[in-house]
Specification:
Layout: H1 21-33, E1 42-46, E2 58-64, E3 82-88, E4 91-97, H2 108-111, H3 113-121, E5 125-134, E6 144-152, H4 180-193, E7 198-204, H5 213-221, E8 226-228, H6 232-240, E9 244-254, H7 265-288
Parallel strand pairs: 1-4, 1-5, 5-9, 6-7, 7-8
Antiparallel strand pairs: 2-3, 3-4, 5-8, 6-9
Helix pairs in contact: 1-3, 3-6, 4-7
Bound molecules: hypoxanthine.
Hypoxanthine binds at residues 131-133, 210-211, 227-229, 252-253, 255, 263, 268.
Length: 290
């Protein structure tokens, strides 16, 4: 027998089909609109150790995740768990300091709500950032990688179950999931800031354990350049609702087995702190030039 949910507590694990999203999103939009009428052009999801990018957002309204209907607080270390609405480089944005992960026990439908909310608030594009392990042996700690495509190896999708035809089609096209036009803008911004930006394929796994060395070798064989525990479901949902998508992985460590050293989340956060300001410069210029 399953334990009944505690009344009023966020419901982490009830499957949330696409058809259930419109009502949930309406409540989320209402919570935001009770606090600000800012209409973002771009949404930014800030991953592990990268929440500091939000420091540059001007005149921001900050909403803790717990104040958003149905959202639990962020539990992952390095995730503040706030929604910010304000200006970045003069452009109205919504930024999420932290996100929901499958490995926290969350359903795909919750994991993708920040991305879906971007669309509902008026944004036309979303930038997904994350910390990742280097699968490409030439990607050492501190490498910034523009995501060209992804492999969804989580075994989950946010689009299973009855569809919400008003939000997106039953069969989402992912041919150009990672919008080439936006990636060109990212590279132009990185060049202008003198910041090196590689290109590569991101593979999303369930986590929360890091990979085995054999898995990292397998992921390389499959065509991955960086591995992480987020991002792919958000990209699918964002494309489903017609958002343009781009993303940057910060490689915080060489993939398991490449150095013989154990992997730790502290290392992930430390490299995030070091490289965060570099990525912040690129993203500020990117957003300003959109
Ligand atoms: N694997 C998976 N996720 C990660 C890693 C890794 O090596 N580093 C940071 N996030």
């Amino acid at each position: 027998m399953s334990t009944p949910p505690v009344p009023g507590s966020p419901d982490r694990a009830t499957p949330l089909s696409p058809a259930a999203q419109p009502e949930r999103l309406a409540a989320l939009v209402a919570a935001v609109r009770a606090r600000t009428d800012l209409v973002p052009r771009v949404g930014l999801v800030l991953g592990s150790g990268l929440g500091g990018l939000a420091d540059g957002i001007e005149d921001s309204v900050a909403i803790p995740f717990e104040a958003m209907p149905g959202w639990p607080g962020a539990t992952a270390p390095g995730h503040a768990g706030r929604v910010l609405l304000g200006g970045l480089g003069g452009v109205p944005v919504v930024a999420f300091q932290g996100r929901f992960h499958l490995y926290e026990g969350h359903e795909p439908g919750l994991v993708v709500q920040p991305a879906l909310l971007c669309r509902q608030l008026g944004a036309t594009a979303v930038v997904l950032t994350n910390a990742a392990g280097g699968v490409n042996p030439s990607f050492g700690p501190g490498t910034l990688m523009a995501i060209t495509d992804h492999l969804n190896l989580t075994g989950r999708t946010p689009l299973a179950g009855p569809n919400a035809d008003g939000l997106g089609p039953r069969f989402a096209d992912l041919t150009d999931a990672w919008t080439p036009r936006l990636r060109e803008h990212l590279h132009a911004a990185a060049d202008a800031e003198g910041v090196a930006l590689a290109d590569g394929v991101y593979v999303g796994l369930l986590g929360p354990n890091f990979e085995t060395p054999a898995e990292v070798r397998m992921l390389r064989t499959l065509g991955a350049d960086a591995v992480g525990m987020s991002t792919v479901l958000e990209a699918i949902a964002a494309r489903w609702v017609g958002l343009e998508v781009c993303g940057v992985s910060l490689v915080t460590n060489a993939g398991a087995g490449y150095t013989g050293q154990p992997l730790t989340h502290e290392e992930v956060l430390a490299v995030g702190e070091e490289a965060g300001p570099r990525l912040a410069r690129v993203l500020r210029r990117f957003v300003a030039g959109l």
